[in-house]
């Protein structure tokens, strides 16, 4: 690993090794409290964040490193000065770059020009850190992820893309259920299907909830992405049938509910499900830090 730009760039061994290391760091944090001693990580954020910023900042500190946070008050990436200059200048001082951007092109530009590792903390196409945390969470519930059946309901987005890649590489079965016109990116689907075929996984896409079949976990996300100005009435007309509720969880026999947060109760999922016994949302949120720490240790340790 030179960077973490997308889960699709990982081999199965690399992905499994990251999950195993994340578990070790989570179980024995004292063993890694100097893993980044003397290292500095610059965090570039174009978009607001709670979990990503806090989990990286505190995680880096727990590893003995130092983080520097830069938001758009310092100039949007590529506008005040070229992305290449951001990358080369920061590489003079820092040991790694974490970037949360609007466009994957910005992430790719940083990786191209930086002489230090770049970690994609979210872009329009991918959310690899969330995906790693999600599969870490599932690996804590299931001994063999290749046997897991995971369903995603809602808008096909960057989270969906990372989940599809991860499930495919790990050999799991993933069912993606979206309203017509809201499926994941076509190229990403083709890439995920190829990875699934290589590793013995399976990817199913449908608009019909009744085609889901039995599932171990059901995952959803907000119906309106950050910055989307579509009216709630228009969104609900399309997405209301895909709400995760008790009836749906019972229908597919799923024991676990997953969400990358923020969650809007009684919208994409009912409060009964979001806050219920089978909800893994806080475990996922905590595991953001452990999964990211595994990436940092792998890249810099």
UniProtKB/TrEMBL annotation:
Entry protein name: Ornithine carbamoyltransferase
Enzyme class, broadest EC rank: transferase
EC number: 2.1.3.3
InterPro entries found in the cross-reference section: Asp/Orn_carbamoyltranf_P-bd, Asp/Orn_carbamoylTrfase, Asp/Orn_carbamoylTrfase_sf, Asp_carbamoyltransf_Asp/Orn-bd, Orn/put_carbamltrans
UniProt organism field: Shewanella japonica
Database matches in Gene3D superfamilies: Aspartate/ornithine carbamoyltransferase
Homology family: Belongs to the aspartate/ornithine carbamoyltransferase superfamily.
Signal peptide per UniProt: none
């Amino acid at each position: 690993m030179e960077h973490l730009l997308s889960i699709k760039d990982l081999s199965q061994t690399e992905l499994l090794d990251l999950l195993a290391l994340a578990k070790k760091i989570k179980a024995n944090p004292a063993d890694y409290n100097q893993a980044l001693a003397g290292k500095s990580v610059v965090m570039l954020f174009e978009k607001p964040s709670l979990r990503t910023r806090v989990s990286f900042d505190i995680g880096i500190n727990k590893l003995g490193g130092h983080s520097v946070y830069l938001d758009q008050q310092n100039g949007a990436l590529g506008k005040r000065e070229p992305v290449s200059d951001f990358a080369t200048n920061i590489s003079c001082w820092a040991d790694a770059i974490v970037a949360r951007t609007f466009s994957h092109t910005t992430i790719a530009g940083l990786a191209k020009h930086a002489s230090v590792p770049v970690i994609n903390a979210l872009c329009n196409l991918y959310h690899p850190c969330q995906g790693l945390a999600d599969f870490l969470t599932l690996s804590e519930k299931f001994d063999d992820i290749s046997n897991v059946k995971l369903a995603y309901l809602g808008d096909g987005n960057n989270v969906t893309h990372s989940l599809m890649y991860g499930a495919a590489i790990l050999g799991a079965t993933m069912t993606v259920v979206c309203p017509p016109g809201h499926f994941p990116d076509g190229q990403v689907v083709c890439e995920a299907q190829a990875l699934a075929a290589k590793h013995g996984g399976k990817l199913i896409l449908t608009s019909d909830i009744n085609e889901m079949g039995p599932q171990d976990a059901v995952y959803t996300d907000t119906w309106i992405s950050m910055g989307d100005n579509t009216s709630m009435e228009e969104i609900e007309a399309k997405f209301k049938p895909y709400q995760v509720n008790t009836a749906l969880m019972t229908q597919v026999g799923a024991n676990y509910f997953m969400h990358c947060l923020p969650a809007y109760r009684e919208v994409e999922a009912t409060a009964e499900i979001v806050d219920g016994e089978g909800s893994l949302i806080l475990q996922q949120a905590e595991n953001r830090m452990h999964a990211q720490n595994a990436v940092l240790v792998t890249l810099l340790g």
